[in-house]
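ERR on first pass: missing label on line 2. Operator R.T. fixed the label and resubmitted. Corrected input:
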Amino acid sequence: MKTYFIKTFGCQMNVSDSERIDGFLENNKYKPTSKIEEADLVVFNTCGVRQMAENRAYGQIHNLRKNNPNIKIVLTGCLSNRKDVRRRLQNKVDLFCEIKNFPSEITKLLQTYQLQTSFNNALDQYLKIKPNYTNHYSANIPIMTGCNNFCAYCVVPYARGRETSRSNKEIIAEIKSLIKDGYKSVTLLGQNVNSYNDGLIDFPKLLKKINAIPGKFWINFVSSHPKDMSSELIETIAQCKKVCELVHLPIQAGSDVVLEKMNRKYTAGHYLGLVKKIKSAFKKYKPESLFALTSDIIVGFPGETKRQFLESARLMEKVGYDMVYFGQFSPRPGTAAWNMKDNVSKIEKARREKYLNAILERTTLANNKKYLRKTLEVLIEKEKDGFYFGKTRTLKNVKFPAVKKNLVGKIIKAKIIQANIWNIEGEILP
Ligand code: SF4
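pass 2 clean. output:
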């Protein structure tokens, strides 16, 4: 039996795609191996967001090919369509393919090399592939893929093409089957889940349908675009009991001038209006619950002045985020920003990130202190060195002594006794 190894770079969406690639190969009589150098087939599911991830992929592909000329290498994900990447790796990679074409393209490749002749045609449509989920309690569910927004810095519209939504029936069927199997949490994935529309229902209606599935489980979703965050959606998130009290709403920059250059199609004022609506909706419908707001911010976008940068800092203070994922601007080939002058130095970008991180540490700690003495539900994810580690509904990391056995994958109640910057600590209630 031939063996395969999947190397995944980047975001949650790529992790979910790799679960489907894994399911596809295993269902077609390939066997996973944990040793990349021993595999007959290696799939690189790549990320083009940062140069560092790209360089790591190039290095590994180069070494694999050098040490094993017969290995078959497939490159999918964000880099698969880039002309410069294809030129650079033309003699090292056997197949470049977009993720949605993975089943049909890989079938052709492996038949050419007579590595496999009878793939199951029923699995031909990418989103219909049954994934090998990474664990037995929380699952990623892609609900749409691609993007129509063309933010100036982003490769996604080029790498994944335009938005396509998966049928709500398929999504509901997948979630029902997971809940039947004992899963406790589902995360709906898409580059812009707010614009989900399968021709029959939109995102608020999809959330309501999933919320109506019987059973005890949590619903999360990423990522949202502020221009598509409607009042109806905000009300739905706050009203649906199974939808967690967490909204990830990427702002990217606090300056309207920078936002316009980024082609984000909203202003900081509009964003702050949304934050106000989200906070008051949670207070209205879930007054007893804590809620969290998280975001993404890019520092050092071309032409970002110190004054414009400080507008990001001011916005962070106003919102009081629970988490922000920072990115130092790095020009990506093929995007609009590739042609802009990358005129903020590396040192200055690092300094700006550090400045914002100090604000985040303050707001996160202040928010975490609100958890003290509260009793909360926690989904336990792992046990290590006598402690359990898990997440609250707001995705706060929680640590507590493992005084009871076999709780990984279960939702338990814990009382919070300590608040730190990046986690909270507690004890399990009987
Ligand atoms: S909304 Fe913008 S940042 Fe998000 S995937 Fe689309 S182009 Fe990229």
